[in-house]
Amino acid sequence: MSDQLAWSDRVRLDQIGQGLHRHLEANEAARSRIAAALDLAALPGLLADVEVRPAGAGWRLKGDLVADVIQTCGITLEPLASRIETAFSVDLIEASDSEPGSDDLDIDPEAPQGSDIIEDGGVDLAAYVVEHLALSIDPWPRKPGAVFEAPEGPVEPSPFDVLRELKPR
Asked: Which of 12, 43, 56, 76 could potentially form a cystine with 31 if both were Cys, beta carbons 3.0 to 4.6 Å apart?
């Protein structure tokens, strides 16, 4: 995706408190941008319920997303509609600058491995929904029963056939 997010719903960390729940529904313009970013033929629907709660040294973001996607079959090139329903969970920790103006981040060594680092005091809930949608899309969509058949045409000679022709008889 480009520098501009296809869909955004940013929450500041001080808004989370003991927990925050959001129901997100992408509008038509956002779905169009997401479809273009994810190379989909169309994205007729995208809903998500996202929850952020304090957990350990950071926060845990949990979400359930439901998306209706239309891809292009890799064999027939026809539209292929499918529904994606998935749940996801991400651990988040806040990074703090070690020195003002420094690019080095001070990260808690006790934080769980694989945690996402929050910078700028906020987290974009919609960006996580789009990320997990992208991870759930079939990378090789194929209509049921579609079979690739190689086109008939002249058979290219094998390199060994060419060498055999050069050999004196």
From this structure: 43
Chain-centroid distance, C-alpha 110:
28
Q: Report the domain count for the chain.
A: 1
Cα–Cα distance measured from residue 88 to residue 99, given in angstroms and rounded to the nearest whole number = 34
Rounded Cα–Cα distance for residues 119 and 41 (Å): 33
3-class state of residue 89 by DSSP? strand
Whether the pLDDT of residue 135 is over 90: the answer is: yes
| 3 domain-assigned | no
Instruction: State which residues form the domain around 66.
Output: 10-166
Q: What is d(CA 12, CA 9) in angstroms, rounded to the nearest whole number?
A: 10
Return the HEC string of 22-48. Answer: EEEECCHHHHHHHHHHCCCCEEEEEEE
